[in-house]
Amino acid sequence: MISTTRSGRGARPSTYILTALALTSLGALAACSKSGAAPDTAAAAAAAAAMTVGSENIAVVTMDSIQSGPAISGSLQPERQATIRAEASGTVTQTFAEAGQRVGAGAVLARIETTGIADQAIAARANVTSARVAYETAQRNAERANRLLAAGAIAERDAETARSQAQAAQAQLSAAEAQSANAQRLLGNTTVRAPFAGIVGARSVSTGDVVSVGSAMFTVVDPSSMQLQASVPADQLSQVRVGAPVRFTVSGYPGRAFNGRITRVAPVADPTTKQVQIIASVPNAGNALVGGLFAEGRVASEGRTALVAPNLAIDQRSTTPAVVRVKNGKVERVNVELGLRDDARERVEIRAGVQAGDTLLIGAAQGISAGTPVRVAAPVDAPRVTR
């Protein structure tokens, strides 16, 4: 039996098909000349010889979900990332994290020299203690003066003086507490911490470096959620809305699709490219995606469950799209009505003309003439069945 599968020498399937037809015809003619059979009998024998079609040249119509919408392309970025800058000037005395290291929220990344600031903080705390003692003493004196005034033992002027001293002591205590809080804040700024849990993307300083306020020290990213910054043609904006799902692929993971959901749509289109920017939030379970990857996909603006076949199964060389189907062991050409297209997955909806489970020919096998008997070969690695 002659098959449409490729030979070890790289012959094309179409060559096998034509060869099979030619050999079948020649064999029938030879048999006719030797046996003296009638020409119509030889033709019938030739037609009865079924041609074998390899499994790589067939596709099966399935009932599956299909989605269609505008094509998108763009890049991925972490949804949360922060550049951590120095909030104090001084020498970096220690670093505790490297690029690629996972850190928790509040984790210490580095320390800056604290000698002068620490002394200021100690002095400020001492001032608070002294001011509190002075206030408590003045408050007790004011309360005592009020009691004596009520008993007629002192003049109103003396009682007012005691109350004023208590108020002044309270103001001094408040000022001392504010100075102490500021000193503590400055001291805290010498300890550099991660603002949220994530991965250190970059470390810009080393022990011994001198930094000033505002100097970049670390970059921390949260890889659990990514952001797809993409664009769609302005003339397809009606198919884009906040909340619409997107499906895309990246070059680093061939054959794997990722999903997200649109969170923002730009209010204006780029006047040069006529594209509208969209932002989609993308869950990143397992941290498979990283910032900077280029993504291509589609906004799933419309979807349903329908009869689906690969794009390769559709013959659109004529005005009416058609498929080449194997039915009852013979090839037939069937006109079909197409619906949604999912170019990202290279599939198309067939609305009429076929049924689920129908076997369609693809590739060079589509060139087999209608009415030709065919047999679909089992996959190479499939177990053989003996009868």
Automatic annotation (TrEMBL):
Transmembrane domains' residue ranges: none
Residue ranges that the Swiss-Prot or TrEMBL entry lists as coiled coil: 159-186
Residue intervals of the CzcB-like barrel-sandwich hybrid domain: 81-222
Signal sequence, renumbered to the chain: 1-30
A Pfam family of this chain: Beta-barrel_RND_2
Gene3D superfamilies in the cross-refs: 2.40.30.170, 2.40.420.20, 2.40.50.100, Helix hairpin bin
Family designation: Belongs to the membrane fusion protein (MFP) (TC 8.A.1) family.
GO CC terms in record: efflux pump complex
UniProt-recorded name of the protein: Efflux transporter, RND family, MFP subunit
InterPro entries to which the protein is assigned, alphabetical: Beta-barrel_RND_2, BSH_CzcB-like, RND_pump_MFP
Keywords noted in UniProt: Coiled coil, Signal
SUPFAM superfamilies xref list: HlyD-like secretion proteins
